[in-house]
Amino acid sequence: MEHCDEDKWWGQELIVNCRAGNDAVCNAEKIQAFVDDLVNEIEMEKHGDADICHFGTGHLAGFTLIQKIKTSSIVFHFCDESKNFYGNIFSCKKFSTLSVRNCLLKHFQPKQIQELVLHRGV
After folding, report:
1. pLDDT digits (tens, 9 = 90+) for 35-69
2. Domain boundaries in the chain?
């Protein structure tokens, strides 16, 4: 972690905005495969099954993914119409943001990824 006082560090949060992914963003099985791969790639441990549900109407319709992990959570929201998707990964265990990016590219092939990393603490 760069520029982080680890004595006061509580966790790492990665916020991602992804534009124009592929059709996998509209498929629950492919979203499940993504989260299974992601948890493995960032060396986390699942706490229960992922909750993947589809809801909304019109341009707001899409899947939401919530996966609890032993050190916090992974949450993504996918839009059917635009194929844009948005995610938050928070953990009190450090993880590789590069591994997350590679996993996003592998599964959803977004045309653009914006990232923001926060070091959470008191």
Report:
1. 999 999 999 999 999 999 999 999 999 999 999 99
2. 9-121
Identity of the residue numbered 36: D
**Helix runs in 23-116, H state only:** 28-41, 97-108
What DSSP string runs through 64-118? EEEEEETTEEEEEEE-TTT--EEEEEEESS---HHHHHHHHHHHH--SEEEEEEE
- Contact, 51 vs 35, CB < 8 A? no
Alpha-carbon Rg for the chain, nearest whole angstrom, is 14
What is the CATH superfamily name and number for domain 9-121? S-adenosylmethionine decarboxylase (3.60.90.10)
Beta bridge partners of 115: 16
Q: How confident is the model at residue 2 (pLDDT cuts 50, 70, 90)?
A: very low
Give the pLDDT band (50/70/90) at residue 7.
Answer: low
